[in-house]
Amino acid sequence: MMKDMVMAIPVWWARRELHQRRADFYYDLASTLKDRVPLFTTVRKLESRARQRTPLTAPMYMSMLKGLENGSLSDALKGIASDVELTMIDATQAAGDNTMADGLMFLSETVIKTDAMVATMRKAVIYPIMLLLMFASLLTGFSLNAVPILTQISPPTQWPPMGRALYIVSQFITHYGVYLGVFAVAAFAAFFYSLPRWTGRIRKRFDQWLPMNLYRDYASSMLMISLASLMRSGISLRSSLERSYKNSSTWSKWHIRQILINLAKPSNGTFGKAFSTGMFDQEMEDRIQDASERSNPIEAFIYIGTGSIDRMIVRIDKRAKQLNSVLMVVCGVMLAAMMLGFLSTTMSLQAGLRNPTQMLSK
Predict the structure, then answer these.
(1) Read out DSSP for 231-298?
(2) Highest mean pLDDT: which range of 36-40, 138-142, 160-164, 259-263
(3) How does residue 85 score in pLDDT terms, banded at 50, 70 and 90?
(4) What DSSP line would sit under 6-59, residue for residue?
């Protein structure tokens, strides 16, 4: 038991490391398949090479070999590939080695783009959090260090209006800052927890605005890529949606169910109207609708899916900048007000020290 737990650590680390370079890994697998080298032979060679160079990673390849013995590359890559990638791999494997080689090559190119989109998403999330933490630190520093010094020189009742406002804020931070911090952490945790889980009409309204629409754009792009890859393998739109449903978040499943229900309605005509569930922004819904009205709608849909990531990276980056700009303005105004209150109070105290009679008369 202890031995298994100890071995689990290097296996986890090896999978994590391979996940970071899985685009190259998919490319290598596709290349060997095109040369008609079985996947089992390729992975066996990697396992043998790992035993000679990095023995701690060899158990990971042994686990992959067990999955391949069952005839499933998606089982072999669990813990390495994402759920969306596993769905795409499973679909291409069922179509034969040639189709799988093309699918893995396409997946290799897609992973590079999706990783870039994830990096953009992380940047969009981390920067505002860091900005808020810095502002909270400055506010706490003023409340605990600067304001108490001023209160020793003069009572807050004699401060100018901006100074008294600063004093009220500092007192709130001093007495309730811990609770405010706990509430802020809980609010952030609840927000991130709700992103893939919260569904319903109210959520659809929130998805139209920052910061919720950042997640909507990301999740909808991943679904489009998954559908495009599956349909490239000859799978119908409905079957592709059903396969994507299995490995999707609660939020995505809710929308996919609505899309499947809409597809079953004969009144919709083209499949484009079925995607008007709020999962996509208006621009993407229009593209899907236009694709459904073309002479070869499936090919047009696949083209939209494969080209959506580059556009979505630009869109997410643009919306992240909008969010950052709003936070910069809010924090800047509050910081300026705080500095104005502090400076006006210190200047008032200096004037009072020069004229003690006027200060006492107040």
Answers:
(1) HHTT--HHHHHHHHHHTS-HHHHHHHHHHHHHHT-GGG-SGGGGG-SSSS-HHHHHHHHHHHTSSSHH
(2) 259-263
(3) confident
(4) HHHHHHHHHHHHHHHTHHHHHHHHHHHHHTT--HHHHHHHHHHHHHHH-GGGHH
Answer yes or no: are the C-beta atoms of 90 and 72 closer than 8 Å: yes
Check if the beta carbon of residue 108 is closer than 8 Å to that of residue 100: no
CA–CA gap between residue 93 and residue 91 (Å, rounded) = 6
Give the list of residues 6+ apart from residue 97 with CB closer than 8 angstroms, or none: 33, 36
Q: What is the pLDDT of residue 247?
A: 80
Q: For 127-159, what is each residue's pLDDT tens digit?
A: 878 888 888 888 888 888 888 888 887 788 888
Token look-up 């309204």 returns 205
Distance of CA 167 to the CA centre of its chain: 39
What's 148-208 look like in SS3? HHHHHHCCHHHCCHHHHHHHHHHHHHHHHHHHHHHHHHHHHHHHHHHCCCCCCHHHHHHCC
Does the pLDDT value for residue 11 go beyond 70?
Answer: yes
Amino acid at 296: N
Predicted confidence (pLDDT) at residue 360 exceeds the cutoff of 50: no
Give the residue from 193, 226, 203 showing the smallest Cα distance to 278.
203
Measured N-to-C along each axis, helices 83-93 and 97-141 cross at an angle, to the nearest 10 degrees, of 180
The angle that helices 282-292 and 297-354 make with each other, rounded to 10 degrees, is: 170
